[in-house]
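ingest -> validate -> predict -> emit
validate: passed (alphabet ok, no gaps, 157 aa)
predict: started
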Amino acid sequence: MDSQRSDPLRVYRIADRRHNVFDGTGAAMHGAGWNSPGRRVIYAAETYAGAMLEALAQANLGRLPKTQVWIEILIGKSVRVEEIDGPDVPGWQASNQHASRGYGDRWYDERRSAVLLVPSLVARQERNIAINPEHPDFSRIRATAPKPVIWDRRLFR
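emit:
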């Protein structure tokens, strides 16, 4: 389903500063929840806290990360956004990722929109954002300069 917004969409991404934070190379190399390897997708979350939870779930470090940065991404209201809910993709939460990657790969290959809002596996009441940097509308999506993430040590006890 496409959504019409009256305001820009602000989303957050946390990633390792040793790599470009806003280009989708990591997802292209390894694949991710909503894309198979070979497709550049930039992932973000609706909230900063959601981005932190996603980063913690992905990192699996057990210690305080030292190279994490965050960016705020501004998606203009003229950028087409496709939104889906869990029931739209049966099996989206399966660990084999067949259903979610299949849906995301079709979205990416068909260039249906620059942005896909998907359910968050980590924070079920929130959504994650997949951004296709190959889509023509990507030029209308902006990101801030990366800033260091300040982690609370209590998260790593």
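The mean pLDDT is 91.
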